[in-house]
Amino acid sequence: MPFKVLIVDDEPDLEVLIRQRFRKKIKDGEFEFVFAQNGQEALNKLKDDVSLDVVMSDINMPVMDGLTLLSRLTDINRVLKTVIVSAYGDMQNIRTAMNRGAYDFLVKPIDFADFEITLNKTIEELQSIKEGLRAREELSAIQYELSIASRIQQSILPRVFPPFPGRAEFEIFAQMTPAREVGGDFYDFFLIDKDRLGFVIGDVSGKGVPAAIFMAVCRTLLKATALQGGSAGECVKYVNDVLTRQSDSAMFVTIFYGILHTNTGEVEFCIAGHNPPCILTASGEVRSLSEPAGIIAGAFENAVFETGSCRLKPGETLFLYTDGVTESQDAKGEFFSDNRLRGVLERAPGAIAEDIVATVVSEVRIFSAGTVPSDDITALALKYVGA
User: Fold this and answer.
1) Maximum alpha-carbon separation in the chain
2) Among 135, 167, 194, where does a domain finish?
3) Could you tell me which residues come within 8 angstroms of residue 136 by beta carbon, excluding any fewer than 6 positions away?
4) What's the pLDDT tens digit per position in 193-237?
5) Helix (H, G, I), strand (E, B), or coil: what is residue 85?
6) 150 in a domain, yes or no?
7) N or C: less crowded end of the chain, CB within 10 Å?
8) Does residue 147 form part of some domain?
9) Strand pairing of 185-193 and 170-177?
10) Confidence label for 293 from pLDDT (cuts 50, 70 and 90)
11) Average pLDDT for residues 24-31, to the nearest whole number?
């Protein structure tokens, strides 16, 4: 498409001169010139033709002069660049035009070499502005889509607490805060049957939208598998084998999947490359649940995933977290660390599940205040009350 330029001047010979000067570029489709005899006619043409972005206008014209035209161009709702033309030495009007928004000026009699240089410079500036505006619009669209993706991601994670109001044998609470608009951490919990509660926390490799999509697949696949009633290790193995066969993105996920037997406090679990959870006793003792440990899921087909077990006593809490908790950094680059996490948990014996999660997340945020989050922060607390 040729670049269209509006020439506003009441001199009849100017159109002939411009068409003669630019005849080759007009023929080659580089330029198209549109002409108006005064400011009012120019305004009408600008409103009717949205492809007109560059205006070269004389100052002294009948009906509406160039300075009045400049003041009226703000009514045109698009980016325009205007070059004003005036008699040599008419600096007062030229200064007025520049103050009213003219991009550049030419003096009469017009030097057509200078005219072409000015025109090309004006077009380059206009194209640069348009590219910036397009980039900003694209960024705004991306940010809007990411905000929707964030709401969708948050909506697929359980957010209603307590989730099982009729069950008094346990308390459970979880929270996920993505480092970006969307993240790769996830958690979930669900009743497998009346005596078994499934619960999981996971951390997908990578960040942003790809991790969020992979996260949604992992969560859905694990839950669908777990509801079939298999052991923790069997469920994680099935998820691993499906992911390694179906995924070509070189992504993987760390998982801790557990099954609480609500009538006894026994917990079957499988650790697939994930941070070992902590057991917080009623007296404030904290110990790690680290064995048997397995490799990450989604990386190696036919990998073996063992099922371990432990028993929670009434009043004990199992605390699960992703590495965004312990690897959060302060302004000096120091990590929050496993030791700080244990210290926070040791000060929370007897606390309800929601308060334990809230306290840990709050301590992490205070520790890393003033820094940009580098990873998602997710925590889940499961307190066994007793049958």
Assistant:
1) 100
2) 135
3) none
4) 999 999 999 999 877 777 888 888 899 999 999 999 999 999 999
5) strand
6) no
7) N
8) no
9) unpaired
10) confident
11) 90
| 262-277 per-residue burial string, b: 16 or more CB within 10 A, e: under 16 | beebebbbbbbbbbbb
Give me the residue label for tokens 């709401």: 151
- Tell me the C-alpha distance between 68 and 174, whole Å: 64
- CB neighbours (10 Å) of residue 85? 25
Q: For the chain, first and last CA: distance in Å?
A: 77
Angle of helix 112-156 relative to helix 208-226, nearest 10 degrees? Answer: 20
Q: Give me the mean pLDDT over the 248-252 stretch.
A: 75
CA distances from 219 to 81, 227, 282, 344 (A): 54, 12, 31, 29
- Those residues with Cβ within 8 angstroms of residue 306's Cβ, 6 or more apart along the chain or in another chain: 233, 270, 292, 294
Asked if the structure places residue 226 within a domain, the reply is: yes
Residues 240 and 362 in one domain: yes
Share of the chain above pLDDT 70, in %: 95
Pairing assessment for the beta strands 286-288 and 278-280 based on DSSP bridges: antiparallel
Rounded CA gap, 223 and 210, in Å? 20
Number of domains in the chain: 2
- Identity at 84, one-letter amino acid code: I
What integer best gives the mean pLDDT of the chain?
89
Domain range spanning residue 302? 158-384
Compute the distance between CA of residue 121 and CA of residue 102 in angstroms, rounded to an integer.
Answer: 14
pLDDT at residue 248 in the model? 61
Q: What is the CA radius of gyration of the chain?
A: 34
Q: By the 8 A CB rule, do 373 and 328 touch?
A: yes
Residue 205, burial from CB neighbour count under 10 angstroms (0-12, 13-18, 19+): middle
Q: Which residue has the tokens 């090309």?
A: 120
